[in-house]
Amino acid sequence: MNTNDLDRAAITVRKTHVFHVGRARGQRIESVLGRLWVTIDGDPRDIVLDPGEGFCVDRDADVRVSALRADARFVLLRPAAGC
Asked: Which of 24, 42, 59, 64 has the most CB atoms around its CB within 10 Å?
């Protein structure tokens, strides 16, 4: 996949907003720009992603993505191989 394709598909999350993904088991969240904080309902982990990093959602629970420090962009890949 061309990185330009990822940029066009990226979701922007503003620093003061939270993006709700919903039940996302098996999907992969990839940071494109900025630092992200990913939280999963009922999961005690703090998942922080820098650009180029990703996380496979391993629970069938609601997921929220927040931007840390500044606006951020991410892509949601589904279904993701290897998750």
From this structure: 24
